[in-house]
Amino acid sequence: MLDSCIGRFGVIRALVVAVAAFGGGQGTATPPSSTTAVAVPQQKEAAVDENGIPARDLLADGDAMKRYFLIGPREKKKAPKEGWACLVVMPGGPGGPEFHGFVKNLWDSCCPEEFVVVQLVAPKWVEQPKVIWPSEPGDQQGMKFTTREQIDATLADVEKVQKVKLDRKRLYQLAWSSSGPNAYRFALEEKPLFAASYIAMSVFKENGLQLSRAKGRAFFLDHSPEDTTCKFAEAERAKEKLAKEGATVELVTYKGGHGWSDDPMARLKKGIAWMEEHRAGAKRGK
Fold it and tell me: What are the per-10-residue average pLDDT scores of the chain (286 residues)?
């Protein structure tokens, strides 16, 4: 299955990335010692690409399994007193760096000026993992941390090592396809890390979710009725169940099936603005 990533850099520009929707198939039992982690040099300064987008390729705790990209802050933009708003992105498909161009475009095209974006890279403890973003011990053989622990380590690295202060009241998550189930889980923690969630083209696994915690939480759901990989009924069920428990839920649709098709940047921009407006503690306009 292809995830199609279509974005803009001022004029329309297409980026198509061929990746498996869930990293599918049967995972091999390859021990972690035979999985080669690619070392990434720590960038002290942001590298600016041909479109003027600043990004750093980093390792939280110096650990090659905790690779992430920090996009922003914008050049010459003064840091907000409360810190930078932050969108944490967990890409779908195999969760690797393939979507970096798409995520940079998202930051440039969709995020307000006071935003930074943190793009996680899913660690591979086995060559063909069944679970791309592990949430429980044993999800991947030999795993040493969960996705939630990876997020905590990454945000700590952003603030303590990269010296980018974050406004924890404006911390959001973006997940799709393989990362979607974890996003629901994180959004329904007793004390949630994220102020609002953008979840696209994902299944909704309510087993294990504390739906009673949904009251006051905000969910922006993005799903195609033509999706044959993750059925549209999953998003409809998520909206129904979450709203019943008191969550604020917006469900938007697009054409084209499973993937980032049909002008995704317009929806992403709308979704980020929606999360800002509906996050917990946000001041509502008249």
Answer: 36 35 31 38 72 95 97 92 97 96 98 97 93 91 95 98 97 98 97 97 94 97 98 98 98 98 98 96 61
Q: Range of 137's domain?
A: 3-24+46-278
Taking the CA atoms of 212, 185, 151 and 119 in sequence, report the sign of the dihedral they define.
Answer: negative
> Per-residue pLDDT tens for 70-123?
999 998 889 999 999 999 999 999 999 999 999 999 999 999 999 999 999 999
Pairwise CA distance, residues 201 & 225, whole Å: 10
Burial of 276 by CB count in 10 Å (0-12 exposed, 13-18 middle, 19+ buried)? Answer: middle
3-state secondary structure of 194: coil
| CATH number, domain containing residue 172 | 3.40.50.1820
Please check whether residue 30 lies inside any domain of the structure: no
Burial state string for 99-132 with b = 16 or more CB within 10 A and e = fewer than 16? bbbbbbbbbbbbbeebbbbbbbbbbbbbeebebb
The phi, psi pair for 149, rounded to 5°, reads: -70, -35
* Domains of the chain: total: 1
